[in-house]
Prior knowledge:
mainly alpha, ABC transporter involved in vitamin B12 uptake, BtuC, two-stranded antiparallel sheet, 2 strands
Amino acid sequence: xxxxAEVPLPRAGEGTEPGETAESASTARSLxxxxxxNPTVVPFIVLLLAVGLFSAIVGxxxxxxxxxxxxxxxxxxxAVVGTAQTLIILTAGIDLSVGAIMVLSSVxxxxxxxxxxxxxxxxxxxxxxxxxxxxxxNGVLVALLxxxxxxxxxxxxxxxGALNLWYSRSETIRQxxxxxxxxxxxxxxxxxxxxxxxxxxxxxxxxALAALVWYVLQRTAFGRHVHATGNDPDAAxxxxxxxxxxxxxxxxxxxxICSVAGWTLIGRIGAISAISGGTxxxxxxxxxxxxxTSLFGGRGSIVGTLIGALIVGVFRNGLALxxxxxxxxxxAIGVLIILAVAIDQWIRKxxx
Length: 352
């Protein structure tokens, strides 16, 4: 009986493309893995390039402290709503109702405190409870009835929007009325002024909220469960994780964060309007996607969302200072979204 021929081991350099060394092949494979493990790297590079580009085009006006603080104020609401959206997208879901929850919460706070004479503390708490209840409803429909998040939140977006118009009677509560009856609701619009900059309490709250959610996602068991649910819900169930509870909790927490965004919205515009914040849904998704969070779940971070919101703010502000038409601002944001999704797809494919 003849012995099987010995299979020769590949020599160094074999198995690579022509002209490619083993070291370069290893580097090519490790780069996508690095980007996969650190999803904020690409958005951070894009932010630096955007800042460099517009500083070259616009000049010193772009780096003026007032302009930089203006960018931060403009992205505050997007970043807060984006924080809620990040939690949901990390579970491989999506929420199209975040903007409607934000506005409905602000309207509840305002009408109770200003028009109905309810003490502002209870009106504020009622707004928070409404946001949490809306998020809880989304979570129950997704987790217990196992309905697609896109369809569920598309439906609740219409429901919450209709309730908003019904309860508000399509009336706007003017800034002077809010200031006279419930100045606490405008408190987040109060600004600290230094060195020509104007930093609002809303922006500080945004940073504090982002830090809190980052800690929860990175340093707690609940955060690990969120990532595990987004990566593979079946594997998470086998590991003993109650996926339904995680999803319900995530959507409920996101609803409360949207209520915080509603409070921030009142501070930002001063008044309370049922038609404000109409672009918050898409803006939040834009910030999350550009920030490197995968739409397939399990990969992303709150820091990336903040960077994504800043990228949107820098592009809009820089193009406005350069005299570009508003339509080109939206054009640029659309290109960024497509590039971000394409890069995410490439990273997932190569790093797999």
